[in-house]
Amino acid sequence: MENNNNKENEKLKKKFKTKMPEQQPDKRMRNFNEVALGYNEEEAILEASRCLQCKKPKCIEGCPVEIDIKSFIGLIAKKDFKGALSKIREKNSLPAICGRVCPQEDQCEKMCILGIKNEPVAIGRLERFAADFEDSKDCAESDSVSSVKKERISENKSKVAVVGSGPAGLTCASELAKRGYKVTIFEALHKAGGVLVYGIPEFRLPKKILQKEIDYVKNLGIEIKLNSLVGNTYELDDLFGEGYKAIFIATGAGLPYFMGIPGENLNGVYSANEFLTRNNLMKSYLFPAYDTPIKRVKKIAVVGGGNVAMDSARTAKRLGAEHVYLIYRRSEKEMPARIEEVHHAKEEGIEFLLLSNPVAIIGSCNLVEKIRCIKMELGQPDSSGRCSPVPIKDSEFDIDVEAVVMAIGQGPNPLLLNKIPELKLTKKGNIEADSNTCKTSVKGIFAGGDITTGAATVILAMGAGKKAAFSIDDYLSNDLW
Amino acid sequence: MSNKIIRKEKLAENIFSFTLDAPQIAKNSNPGQFVIIRINETGERIPLTIAEADKADGTIRIISMSIGKTTMFLSGLNIGDAIKDLLGPLGQKSRIDKFGSVVCIGGGVGIAPLLPITKALKEKGNDTVSIIGARDKDSLILEKEMSLASNEIHICTDDGSKGYKGFVSKRLSELITKKDGKDPCYKFDRAIAIGPPIMMKAVCDVTAKFNIKTIVSLNSVMIDGTGMCGTCRVEVGGQTKFACVDGPEFDGFLVNFDLLIARQNYYLKEEREAVEYFTKEHPDGKCRLH
Lengths: 481, 290
Ligand SMILES: Cc1cc2nc3c(=O)[nH]c(=O)nc-3n(C[C@H](O)[C@H](O)[C@H](O)COP(=O)(O)OP(=O)(O)OC[C@H]3O[C@@H](n4cnc5c(N)ncnc54)[C@H](O)[C@@H]3O)c2cc1C
Ligand SMILES: Cc1cc2nc3c(=O)[nH]c(=O)nc-3n(C[C@H](O)[C@H](O)[C@H](O)COP(=O)(O)OP(=O)(O)OC[C@H]3O[C@@H](n4cnc5c(N)ncnc54)[C@H](O)[C@@H]3O)c2cc1C
Ligand code: SF4
Ligand code: SF4
Ligand code: FES
Known about the structure:
The complex is a heterodimer. By secondary structure, chain A is α/β, with parallel strands linked by helices.
């Protein structure tokens, strides 16, 4: 009997990912602490032992920065956690972040061979485990992989300027620093990290973890100049004038879109960027200990179906909203958000209003009172393969709300781009850059991340940062454009 | 950038002028532009106009009226203290062309942003007539600097304790329509008005009648100041604009002032709470940085 049970367990273990310990929904809904708590050593080893150590591992093909997944998981299985982290760091300078926020189901884990019949290996969770292990007491300070000596900056290597301190900028800078270049990152805000610091909330990516990764980058000898808006504080010519030989533009997709429907400027209507920036960058959830206020409302609607919408909705819940409506014009299947976040949002009681689209926001005395939506149905698949939603006639309905968060996407911020008229842009206003070399139409200027692709992912931005670093190294060594 | 305060002056009961060491901002700054400051680790980000930029000295001057937590905290800082975060110059620069005769109207602390624009207009060869006003004579700031920058200056106070008794908009109306009986009747090619929204609106009501193009500077609530958050959105000619990057100056005839005022007041309750919290922490009204 007992034997049978054990066998059953063994089978289940093979089939499913080792469960991630999490804060319970009823508790976490009331705090901003991290939701997923991370594997302990046993859990990590157990999960790592699920990996088949394939001869020709497919998983690596799914990772945009080509981490040697098989090897690092093998090292975890052998309890060599430090070795695992070193292996990851060979390709990825922000593992604690990627392990948490990569859409693994579309990337590495999608390709994992186990995934054909069962659940794939939980690669992201293992990556996070390896990265977090450094913080645990078992890892002596001196062994820490991150406590690298300051790289010696070579006197005869050129200066490079990186504009923007999001994942693209941070990665490009660290790759260049590792090659001996003197790199300065210019960041407009008062904190480094890009979306990782102002957008993604604490409960998904603790700022402490981000800070650790940024310290690692600084340890490489990189200077980060905060409060420096390139185009304003520094003209691009200032930078070339000060001896920077190449410039990497990684300014992200920071311009919030609105729908252009009536009532969008009423008090109580936020862009997701405003809502999230108040909370994450300015810490308004700690008001009045922190000065920046945010309205704590009981009923709120969030419009959109991506990560940004999920983050906004879950933040609203934590600020004390009783009803958080997530309004999305397609069905759940089409939602671009990470599956895990959709799942978490549902557990936390976010109310999904699918196949619905706002047509107006209604208020009095300049204050939001209702949002008017129309029901949608899915039509034929369009060129992108997704079914485009079509409004159903006379199906409008109103919902009482005190606030609305628009999370329908972000575009390129034109502020700097407008000042470089010779820089070629795409129709959507993104910088046109070669996807392999990150070269733009202007000699010495490279670009990558969301500013070239439109809003994408952390890991793609990092991948671009890395390519740019290779390409910049090549350009500065050979002076070939 | 050290952001150190190297000079502090009291201009009126609750208005202070600070000269900051900020060479990089000074270098690229133009009239009409502003900075965003954050005073300490828990502080909010607030915009203040660059009232003067000295490229040679590498300094900028900001003038702040204490009306809430951050500006109160700022007024407690002294020479040698540094502003934690200072970002700028932000916003579009003022259009400085040869327009002819320009009337520059400033109310309250709005005279601070008006000063560099008036100076630049005069240097460009315009005839500058300024009308500046305040509640009473003790609240009036920058009178001397403004008269130097103007071919002619008119002072107004609400209570008549100095100069003309009444609002700047009324004085303007009289100058144009010759109601004060004096010759010649003023003909203006352009107007610039900076002050509380209600004042700018009143000025636009006057200038619209005479079809004098009027530029106003909008002080909407801001966070990043770089076009990222949309907090500062205003309606101009029926279109949504971001005051921090598209402005802060706009064609006054097209601005929806009621919306501006409503959006400025959205957080009044919280702002009061912040001041209460601040005064509890700092009973003497002074702040300590260290
Ligand atoms: C709320 C939210 C949740 C997300 N969740 C996920 C997720 O779960 N998983 C995932 O993979 N991706 C997620 N993303 C997307 C991901 O964060 C982005 O794709 C990624 O951050 C892009 O990186 P980047 O380096 O190109 O730009 P950004 O991270 O946008 O950084 C750009 C930086 O440049 C600065 N800057 C802009 N202009 C200037 C200038 N002129 N001078 C100086 N500095 C300037 C900005 O202040 C900013 O700090 C999310 C995005 C958001 C908004
Ligand atoms: C482009 C621009 C230039 C400005 N220049 C000057 C100047 O030269 N001198 C000066 O004294 N004031 C200036 N202001 C106004 C100044 O920013 C506000 O007085 C300041 O933010 C008040 O902060 P507080 O914490 O002291 O008061 P709070 O208690 O926070 O607010 C009091 C009032 O100030 C307004 N306010 C609050 N937060 C902001 C914010 N982040 N941005 C804008 N307004 C806000 C609100 O309408 C509120 O009713 C300018 C504003 C803008 C937009
Ligand atoms: S970086 Fe992202 S895609 Fe690559 S292995 Fe890690 S979780 Fe997977
Ligand atoms: S594909 Fe899956 S099972 Fe194979 S090596 Fe990669 S993670 Fe392990
Ligand atoms: S202040 Fe954020 S967009 Fe203007």
